Amino acid sequence: MPDTPKPPLPAGMFDEWPRIVVDTSRGTPHHRIARLATHAADHWALGPDGPLKTPQPLASTISGAVHEALLHLAELGLIDIDTDRLNAAKAIPIDRGGLGPKAAVPEHLSAGANAENCPACKGTNPPYPFLCPGPTKDTTHG
Ligand SMILES: [Zn+2]
User: Fold this and answer.
1) How many domains does the chain have?
2) 109 Cα–ligand 1 center, Å
3) Which pLDDT score, from 0 to 100, does residue 56 have?
4) Which of 30, 62, 92, 101 is the most exposed place for a label (fewest CB within 10 A)?
5) Residue 101: per-residue pLDDT
6) What per-residue confidence (pLDDT) applies to 104?
7) Does residue 75 lie within any of the structural domains?
């Protein structure tokens, strides 16, 4: 029985798949499992098939490390694969960034404000004299 209820499966292939909150803080089951997985991945990475002894592309290193970590946990019976869910899902998102809690979109200050103080201008390097253009009137971007 899982500690945390699972989110509902999406009805359609491209429907949103809501996330559940997972406590990853020190000492939680997630933290303990992550440490075990990290040790298994490190052990593989330092071994004969790992990138230090067998030069390989980054994608192969990631794939090898994840494979070893998940296999280690599965062989110890510490994780279960929910094959009912796996088979029932019409599509499974692979981009973690797309479905997480929505971050607040920064808004511009008033037009002419110092861009260095504007959260929406931050990092955009506007042309000198670094003035905020103000709230956008363009509605095509939502
Ligand atoms: Zn701005």
Assistant:
1) 2
2) 5
3) 96
4) 101
5) 46
6) 60
7) yes
Regions of the chain short of the pLDDT cut 70: 1-4, 97-104, 137-142
Give the CA angle between residues 35, 36, 41 to the nearest 5°: 95
pLDDT at residue number 97? 65
**pLDDT at residue 20, as a whole number:** 83
**99 C-alpha vs ligand 1 centroid, how far in Å?**
27
Coil vs helix vs strand at 131:
strand
Which residue, chain included where needed, has tokens 């997480």?
100
Q: State which residues form the domain around 121.
A: 106-135
Distance 101 CA to ligand 1 centre (A): 24
Contact 89, 13 (CB under 8 A): no
Q: Please indicate, yes or no, whether residues 79 and 112 belong to a single structural domain of this protein.
A: no
d(CA 18, CA 8): 8
In whole angstroms, how far apart are CA 75 and each of 34, 57, 78?
A: 15, 27, 8
Q: Is residue 20 part of a domain?
A: no
**What's this model's pTM, rounded to 2 decimal places?**
0.62
Around ion ligand 1, residues with a beta carbon closer than 5 Å are: 108, 118, 120-121, 132
Which helix H or strand E contains 38, and what residues bound it? helix 29-46
CA–centroid distance, 119 to ligand 1, in Å, is: 7
